[in-house]
Design goal:
With about 725 residues, the chain is of the alpha+beta class. It is elongated. The termini are far apart.
Length: about 725
């Protein structure tokens, strides 16, 4: 519904709506660009601030670690402390330890003897991390590290610890003093003592949040942040300060920058500190800036759109309405209207172009009508060419082909006359074989022909090229035929097939310039189809004649063969009686069998007896006489058909047997000739060869005698 309403609006309204939409889109794009620019600036500021805070926190943790180690060493050097331990006065040792630790910052102190027993403290007894520190200290090494202690609540407590060996005056290790601080929210607050309100810290150990001083971030939300920023966290575990490359937003939309710094103790990375920078003031500034920018853009767009709409209405909408009115009048057939041009801008140029278009419109319509007629004529030519090519491909009789070709072309192309000439066997004359109308039949009847090279037909055949006469009166080679007085234009097209010219097709019209280039191309294609069809018909006729001659020759040979066989075996024939006995028949033929052999077709002697000719290659070589019992009735059509089929198969079997016998006889003759030749070649003595030849020839042919004698020289002379 909305699209239909918009389509029905005027062009001026559509243009104004388009302008408003364009400016609205531009405003949206600018808003997005400004917003992204501000967000990018805030992100850069946040990342820089987060990196700075992370570096500060890392240095403060290092200072705290050094301070813890220094204070522990000061405590160990408390006067009388080592002596009390050496004298095993634990109570005095505890008093001196408490007095020395009072001004120092320790959350707990523990004493372990050389056997690993806790003399003071013991809350970490059995902790593997503290046990490792104690083991190092018992070896005389000042050890620093962390202790992660599981509380009764199930939560973990992260502690920074230092383990120092206690030596007497002889440097003998008497025990290990363990001093540590708990890293909790209070500790993080001390580390971040100079922070502004928007900076918070969190301790992450083994991927878990141990403690934090975030004021606005819950543990669950911080865990999700860790999953989202796992790449930066892994980088911090590698020993580098890592800053998340994008801002993270709270559920309320507050932007936050996040960085990670490694917590290094004793030269090893023990945990990761997360630094979160909040942007409350900048967030409020960003929203206010975006609001002010949007208001400014909106006011600017409203003013600009109003001015553009007014200019558009004055300079475009009003002139276009006048153009529309003139166009409607032209659509009704009034081409006398013109657009009034009052300006020199694009609209005025459009008006002048519009007026020029009206002047040329009538000429364009005339050209379109002419081209439409040309296209229709060309389409008719193409359709006729396809029809002729399809029809002539089915005709294999030359006389029928030439008659139908000329009639089809004349009818399909609406020509005055169509004729088909073929070159005679001498090549000296082009003979008209078919022509349309009464004139064409008369010319064919009287044997109309043109000498080679004469007229347009002769020129086309001689040059193997189409020749067109748009005005036959001006063509130098046109043959003026009195039988065709109304010819005004003519096209002669050579009949080409398989590299030779069979003749030419003449197509004549009673209109001048009836043939253009495209028409000639189509006509030549049609002529080529006709030529191929004529060539195919000629090849078919010659192949049929050759096949018939072959059949006749083979039939005569076959007939002679069977005649010789009948002469050698005049009594060849058998009779099978009702009991199934087979016996030879007498050589005398019954009269009805002679009749069947002479007629070459089935003869019914009576209701029960009929004779069927036995044929091989359409030659009657015998007769089969069939007789039914008196009570079986006359011969039915199905029985006659069956007997004909069986006797036909008998003829084929006899022909195969005869061919086999001929093959066997030729094989025997060749074998006999080979044997005689081999016997004669066994000796190189002249007399032996002659004697062997005479003997072998007589035996091979069963003759009474054979003489082989060499002639004397005088008997072979020219006078002999």
């Amino acid at each position: 519904m909305l699209s239909k309403f918009f389509r029905n609006l005027s062009l001026g309204v559509k243009l104004n709506v388009a302008i408003v939409l364009v400016f609205a889109i531009l405003l949206a794009i600018l808003s997005v660009i400004v917003t992204r620019g501000i967000d990018h600036l805030i992100a850069q500021m946040g990342q820089q601030r987060a990196a700075q805070e992370a570096a500060v926190i890392q240095s403060r943790f290092s200072e705290t670690e050094q301070l813890l180690s220094t204070n522990a060493k000061l405590l160990v050097n408390t006067p009388g402390l080592i002596e009390a331990l050496a004298d095993e006065e634990i109570t005095r040792f505890r008093t001196l330890l408490a007095a020395g630790a009072a001004p120092l910052e320790f959350d707990y102190l523990e004493l372990v003897n050389t056997e690993g027993d806790y003399l003071i403290g013991g809350e970490h007894e059995g902790n593997p991390q503290e046990a490792e520190l104690v083991a190092l200290a018992l070896l005389g090494i000042d050890a620093q590290g962390i202790i992660v202690q599981e509380m009764e609540t199930g939560e973990q407590e992260f502690q920074m610890a230092v383990a120092l060996p206690l030596r007497d005056v002889t440097s003998k290790i008497l025990g290990v003093l363990i001093a540590g601080r708990v890293v909790d929210e209070k500790f993080l607050t001390e580390i971040n003592f100079a922070r502004i309100e928007n900076v918070s810290l969190g301790l992450i150990y083994a991927g878990q949040i141990v403690t934090q001083d975030y004021s606005e971030v819950g543990t669950g939300e911080l865990a999700s942040l860790l999953e989202e920023t796992s790449a930066a966290y892994e980088q911090a575990l590698g020993g580098q300060i890592a800053v998340v490359d994008h801002l993270l937003f709270s559920p309320a939309g507050m932007p936050r920058a996040l960085a990670y710094t490694p917590l290094i103790m004793g030269g090893e990375i023990r945990a990761v500190i997360g630094v979160v920078v909040q942007y409350r003031d900048l967030f409020v500034f960003q929203r206010q800036l975006l609001k002010n920018t949007a208001i400014a853009f909106l006011l600017t767009v409203v003013v600009v759109i109003g001015v553009i709409i007014w200019i558009n209405w004055r300079s475009i909408t009003v002139p276009l309405e006048r153009f529309s009115a003139v166009a409607r009048q032209m659509a009704e057939g009034d081409y006398s209207q013109r657009v009034e041009v009052t300006t020199g801008d694009e609209v005025g140029q459009l008006g002048r172009t519009f007026n020029d278009m009206v002047d040329r419109l009538q000429q364009t319509l005339t050209d379109i009508e002419r081209r439409s007629r040309d296209l229709e004529l060309r389409s008719a030519y193409l359709e006729a060419s396809a029809d002729v090519g399809r029809e002539v491909a089915l005709i294999l009789d030359t006389e029928m082909l030439v008659e139908q070709v000329v009639d089809m072309i004349k009818e399909r192309l609406d020509m005055y006359y169509v004729g088909l000439f073929l070159v005679d066997e001498t090549g000296e004359w082009n003979v008209l074989r078919a022509g349309t109308g009464r004139a064409g039949r008369q010319m064919v009847a009287r044997g109309h022909r043109l000498k080679a090279g004469e007229g347009m037909v002769g020129w086309s055949i001689a040059n193997v090229e189409a020749r067109i006469a748009l005005d036959v009166g001006e063509d130098a080679v046109h043959f003026s035929n009195p039988d065709l007085p109304d010819t005004r234009s003519e096209a002669a097209l050579p009949l080409r097939s398989r590299g030779r010219v069979l003749g030419a097709l003449t197509v004549q019209s009673d209109r001048e310039a009836a043939f253009d280039h495209d028409a000639v191309v189509v006509l030549q294609t049609m002529a080529d189809h006709v030529a191929v069809a004529l060539d195919n018909a000629d090849l078919f006729a010659r192949s049929q004649r050759a096949l018939e001659a072959e059949r006749r020759a083979y039939g005569e040979v076959s007939r002679d063969t069977w005649l010789r066989m009948a002469h050698l075996h005049p009594d060849l024939g058998y009779l099978c009686d009702i009991q199934g006995n087979v016996a030879p028949v007498t050589p005398e033929w019954r009269p009805e069998m002679v009749q069947v052999g002479t007629a070459g077709q089935i003869v019914h002697v009576d209701d029960c007896t009929m004779g069927v000719p036995l044929k091989i290659r359409d030659q009657v070589v015998g007769v089969v006489r069939l007789r039914k019992s008196e009570g079986d009735g006359e011969w039915r059509d199905q029985e006659v058909s069956l007997m004909e089929a069986l006797i036909d198969q008998l003829g084929r079997a006899l022909e195969g047997a005869q061919l086999y016998q001929d093959t066997q006889r030729r094989a025997v003759r060749e074998q006999l000739a080979a044997h005689v030749t081999a016997q004669m070649r066994q000796s190189l003595d002249l007399e032996t060869v002659l004697r062997t030849a005479a003997s072998e020839m007589r035996q091979a042919l069963g003759l009474e005698g054979v003489i082989v004698q060499l002639a004397r020289p005088e008997e072979m002379s020219d006078d002999a």
